[in-house]
Design a protein that fits this description.
- The chain folds into two domains: 224 residues, Rossmann fold (3-Layer(aba) Sandwich), CATH 3.40.50.300; 78 residues, Alpha-Beta Plaits.
- It has eleven helices and 15 strands.
- Helix 8 crosses helix 11.
- The structure holds adenosine-5'-triphosphate.
């Protein structure tokens, strides 16, 4: 169930990337005053270690992304932060309050939108917001949230008749109705179409701009890259990396990578491979032919080259010396997805155990 509470304007700026250790507190510090502190958090369910050792901080006004595969321990972490799970060890602090020992005051400052929030089918949008507002001492005006989240046309629509995107908007509104300073949003764009996802991202930015600090649990690297000031990657219950999305992305790829489109296949691809700055060369459309017992590999016209700092000019000059001018050169910007895959594998590879 969503829970929530006041806001203050804030700005955020990215902190530098620093590698995480697996057994010590967070090493990537927020650029603003920390409003959330998690240190050495551990949570087990019987023999199952859901969270082994998680530490991080969230600065006021930041959007912090919490990334990880299914079962990594993300939801358990944010539930402990919200006082919904009792930790076995470690400490958690939200604006100086302890959600583990005294969760009630935390609910006045922390809004939570957890996965798959469901409401009674017949409850209308306006009724749901008024009901939730009644739980708080200083709630936000439901009408203000209806406008902020673009729910004007659905005020009197029953929950069961809302589209997936409208349900998500309502669940965000419910997380914010207590006028929280901090909001936890767990997989809020899962199941939405691309247009609805983009609209939801705009909303999250508007919420952040209104002064709310956001913890965003997500599987989507494009979402994290677009929205988050910093991210932490959790794997098997531990923080294995943290930093800015772009810093983490750069860490995932060493060297420079670019794609070349040639006018015609290159006969002498070996001369490119022989360049000292080239570390990796592949061709998307290479062909091998055998003629008179001789095997010949044709490079094709689509090459992807990775190498050191000078690899791009080195390759262009080498081609030019043979009278070849590429039709197109496209440098490849490293992505957070590349870094994530390098760290923990594809998001779909692991399932909850
Ligand atoms: N109530 C519970 N009882 C037993 N095991 C649980 C319980 N809740 C979570 N787990 C297990 O703890 C581990 C961490 O779960 P958690 O939901 O925190 O991961 P997650 O990273 O949020 O995953 P997902 O992305 O799939 O939501 C998983 O192996 C999960 O199966």
């Amino acid at each position: 169930m969503p829970r929530p509470a006041t806001s203050s304007p804030a700005t955020s700026s990215p902190a530098s990337l620093q590698p995480a250790t697996t057994s010590s507190p967070a090493t990537s510090s927020p650029a603003t005053e920390p409003v959330v502190r998690v240190s050495g958090l551990r949570k087990t369910y019987g023999d199952k270690v859901a969270v082994a050792d998680v530490s991080f901080e969230v600065g006021r006004g930041e959007i912090l992304g919490i990334l990880g595969q299914n079962g990594a321990g993300k939801t358990t972490t944010v539930e402990a932060l919200a006082g919904l799970r009792t930790a076995d060890a470690g400490s958690v602090s939200v604006l100086g309050l302890d959600p583990q020992s005294d969760p009630a005051p935390v609910r006045e400052v922390l809004g939570v939108q957890l996965q798959e929030s469901r409401l009674p089918a017949k409850l209308r949008v306006r009724e749901a917001l008024r009901l939730y507002a009644s739980f708080y001492t200083a709630p936000k005006d439901p009408e203000e949230l209806i406008t902020l989240l673009g729910l004007q046309d659905t005020r009197d629509t029953a929950y069961e008749n809302l589209s997936g995107g409208q349900k998500q908007r309502l669940s965000i509104a419910l997380a914010l109705v207590g006028n929280p300073q901090i909001a936890i949003l767990d997989e809020l764009t899962t199941g939405l179409d691309p247009q609805a996802r983009r609209e939801t991202w705009d909303l999250i930015e508007a919420v952040r701009d209104s002064g709310v600090t956001i913890l965003l649990v997500t599987h989507f690297m494009d979402e994290a890259q677009r929205l988050c000031d910093r991210v932490i990657v959790i794997d098997d219950g531990r923080v294995i990396a943290q930093g800015t999305p772009s810093g983490l992305a750069r860490q995932g790829r060493t060297g420079v990578t670019f794609r070349l489109t040639l006018q015609e296949p290159l006969k002498d691809v070996a001369m490119l491979r022989a360049l000292p700055s080239v570390t990796h060369l592949t061709s998307a459309d290479a062909t091998t032919t055998v003629s008179a017992g001789q095997r010949q590999t044709d490079s094709g016209t689509q090459l992807e080259v990775t190498g050191g700092a000078t690899v791009l000019p080195d390759v262009i000059i080498a081609l030019h010396s043979r009278g070849i001018v590429p039709a197109e050169v496209q440098t490849i910007t490293p992505s957070l997805e590349d870094a994530f895959v390098a760290l923990v594998g594809h998001p779909s590879e692991k399932v909850s155990s």
